[in-house]
Hints:
Blueprint (H helix, E strand, L loop, with lengths): L5 E5 L5 H10 L5 E5 L2 H9 L5 E8 L3 E2 L1 H8 L5 E9 L3 E4 L10 E4 L1 H14 L4 E4 L3 H9 L8 E4 L1 H6 L3 E5 L8 E8 L11 E9 L6 H10 L5 E8 L7 E8 L5 H13 E11 L14 H14 L3
Parallel strand pairs: 1-2, 1-3, 7-8, 7-9
Antiparallel strand pairs: 3-4, 3-11, 5-11, 6-9, 6-10, 12-14, 12-15, 13-14
Helix pairs in contact: 7-8
The chain binds 3-phenylpyruvic acid (PPY).
Amino acid sequence: MADVTRYGYLGPEGTFTQMALLAWSASHDGEHVPFGSVDSALEALRRSEIDAAMVPIENSVEGGVSATLDALASGDPLVVIGEVNVPITFVLAARAGMPRADVRAVGTHSHAWAQVRGWMDANLPGAAYVPTLSTAAAAAGLSSGVEQAYDAAVCAPVAASNHGLEVLASDIGDRAGAVTRFVLVSRPGTLPERTGADKTTVMLFQRHNRAGGLLELLEQFAVRGINMTRLESRPTKGSLGSYCFSIDFEGHVLDERVGEALMGLKRVCAEVRFLGSYPREDGAAVDVAPLTTDADFAGARDWLRSLRGS
Ligand SMILES: O=C(O)C(=O)Cc1ccccc1
């Protein structure tokens, strides 16, 4: 019997991360294994207990998901092999019979809370926020029969119905059209094919904190016509004021211009963590700038070789 791919995800059932994995598995078979946190899923992946893990990486309202960016920045290397964008809608749910006006504390994931704060201020001012490991964990807590520190949950509609909760308000996100981007992470050794519509993710550690230091990193992309799609700084956690940069950019490690940019970064950075090249979910082909095609780079390399007589 062929081995079954084991996909971990931030669970339990009913999380937005599970929705991303279900979207992925429409075209990829496998077994789905829930984990209580992003860290525990990625650690299980590092220990080879699962083959890949679906985790949230950024959303259109709150920006980067620090737990994921930090877990990818240290520890044994992992690589992104795919991405899934999920439209997010939140409901406020509680045990049957709980009047909305009586809600005193709301349990949810920090990223969900950040996206409904405006609605909460306007509709339940004074309600306390109780952080939970995921939106679905907040819903599960209410139906568990165990006393919770909150009396309502912000979660996906499916999590409310899975747990027999009553929806007190729908579509409570502050921004219509909010989208979260999830990535499927695996161990190095799996390099998805180049499609011409790819992204690459890296984590860059600066050698020196000095004037123009960040510019020195960014110009490695600019001079090779590479467009960045996400740039975030994260503390290295070594000392106050010391940062590393998490960057997504268009292109695949097999593209000549990307290879040259990575070599430039390797020269000027203290450390370059390659976090994978993978197809864009939207399939939008990279717009290759003039004079940065594979042929342009190969031509220049052949010319140098001829000067060197090799
Ligand atoms: O808690 C969840 O359901 C998650 O999958 C994490 C999350 C939370 C809020 C928005 C997007 C993802």
